[in-house]
Amino acid sequence: MKLQQYRRVLALPGVRPLILVALLARIPFTAVGVTLTLHVVLDLHRGYAAAGLVTAANTIGSALGAPLLGRLVDRRGLRPVLLLTALGAAAFWAVAPFLPYPWLMVAGLLGGLVALPVFAVVRQSIAALVGPDQRRPAYALDSMSVELSFMVGPALAVIAVTQLSARLAMLIVGATTIVAGLGLLVLNPPVRAPEEAQQPAGRVPRRSWLRGRLVALLVLSGAATVVLSGSDVSIVAVLRAAGQVSWAGIVFPIWCACSLVGGFVYGALRRPVPAVALVGLMGLLTLPVGLAGGWWALSLALLPAGILCAPLLAGTADEVSRLAPGQARGEAMGLQNSALTTGVAIGAPFAGAVIDASGPGWGFVAVGLVGVVAAAATLPAWRRTRSTGRAQPPGRQLVTAAAGQPPTR
Description:
single chain; 409 residues; mainly alpha; Growth Hormone, Chain: A; 78% helix; 0% strand
């Protein structure tokens, strides 16, 4: 391992404040699901299924809006998009706590469409600030900050709801989301590297970059979050069957800590591990987790797969940044964000259905198989890349595409 890679990345201009702002800006976003759920259950007196529909509507809106906002960043720049989404967040969170249930679902969908694109923007900015040979440790740092945000955000949401009220918690989430948007607006990180900004303006045909390996990466990204979100539900189910649900507050932090360690090690490795291998291995290691009975055995069984979570997020973002040309990287990152979000939306109900039909342990088997199958299905994309040689740099693809010529290899 080369730990000095982290020092070199953090010494680059703009990287350290970007990572810090990203960590703080993501916290309110990780609290959205819990806050909406508790508001529907406690304030609107609906069941958890109804609450799940609201969060699903918000998730669907976010999945649809991410590539559109990314494309807008590519064409108009970052600040107009940040202003638009900050205004959208202000409108949604100002009215959402007071809407009846049917209108809350509609507002959740619209709010998701214009959700602040923190995750995609940060990954796009890392590609602009960091050269290709240093992006892996940079994205590893970013994935570790995501884990920290998910460790903090939902817990703070629960505290706000229990100590104050669900409606007030929603207003706090809205206010902090707007502050996050303003923080990014003030920081205004670049979304293109200097050499990319000098390239000819013009729309890059989507067919010139959205193909082969990049499509495979989107499939792998979605499969990865199916495994992760399905494992969330399966953990609770296994603990409930063992009469140890209260220990979930220990199991989940251990799982997150394993991911942090894995992300740190991955960023310091001498050579990257292909995303297809990470997804396939995580799926394989998830298959037997359901055999664990108690909380301590479950924690140990989750260690191998948990170590791969942050490396997988970092590896896929790194590869997407290399395959997408600078003028289309915002849309590419938005598409990846949509794939990740869609996987989250599918994984939990899929695992829940399997658990209801077959038992708690089978949830891990079902989502683990998704990872294995996705890796097997996309493996030919990596084999074709090796057999045809390294793809042409995105910068040259951009020039030829802007000139109306098909990109060559």
